[in-house]
Amino acid sequence: MVPSPALLPQQKALEDPLAHLPCSTILEYRRGQTIYGQEHPSTSIYLVIDGKVKVCRVTDDDREVVVDIYQPDEFFGESAFLGPAQRCELAVAIEGTKVMAWTTSEIEEIAARRPRLGIALMQLLVQRSVDFGARIESFSVDNIARRLARSLIRFSERLGQENEDGTVQMIPFTHELLSQYVGTSREIVTHYMNLFRRQGYLRYSRRGIMLHRDALREWLKQNQTI
To answer: What is the pTM of this model?
Structure first.
């Protein structure tokens, strides 16, 4: 017997960390400016107010692997809780950006008074762990073309603006940035971006990327093992 909707478990609303945090000083960064890095590791949690931020992990041979791109109302920098010895992260503004910041000691002090803040941050980290798990799965089972397609779809869902014709407008991600996220070279990303463009799944220029998201999703379904 199929349970009635009333008997199905309801999705629990997530706590909003902003509901438990006081306003902080707004810091401004120009495009390409480092917010924190190995030479100046962060001791804070950041909230994007305006603009976008790229967070990378730096490998032992100094290559950058993009963790994610963060936009307004999203937090980043949670690795500050691990202490300097455990961090090899780099955060860079990819356009003119404004952020608020709270030191880890401030967060700990506020969470002691407002325990729901701790719950909110834990939920945030669990959701990111789920997202990273899906990304690791893609690295295990997908080839580069499929990983790139999934990445473009994900960025369009998080960072894109849907047009009336169903296409999605995104900022002009460089092929270098996409390669750092997908886990390959810039030349291979350029090859597949050109292929997707010839097949009509996207258009791109210095002004941005226009993605036919539904068509690219259908391409993923039809190309399971290429």
So the answer is: 0.85
